[in-house]
Amino acid sequence: HSLGAGAKDAVPDLRTALDDSDPEVRMWSALALVNNKSYDKAAIPILVQVLHHENSMLRQVACLSLALIPYDDAEKETVVSALADAANKDADEEVRKNAISALKIIAPDAVPSGK
Prior knowledge:
mainly alpha, globular
């Protein structure tokens, strides 16, 4: 993930790692793929799960990563629901702000009122 654009050669392996048995491997693979503008749809449910990670910084990154992925309507529903939940209920103010920012990009009509 920290290699940034230098990880382009690893994209096939990162896609394979989305199915790894270790949730941390799946999470970092999904984040690295989005960071490399490789929007594998298999990363979506993984990033939605990261919204529940104990580390608030990872939850923030997941919000921002989810904002970058192009969605079809069915995928968008799940993501918007998860981000709205984070925007309304996350204990960390920065996560809530990032969730709102992501919602403004993905589904502006879904932004919680007053936000």
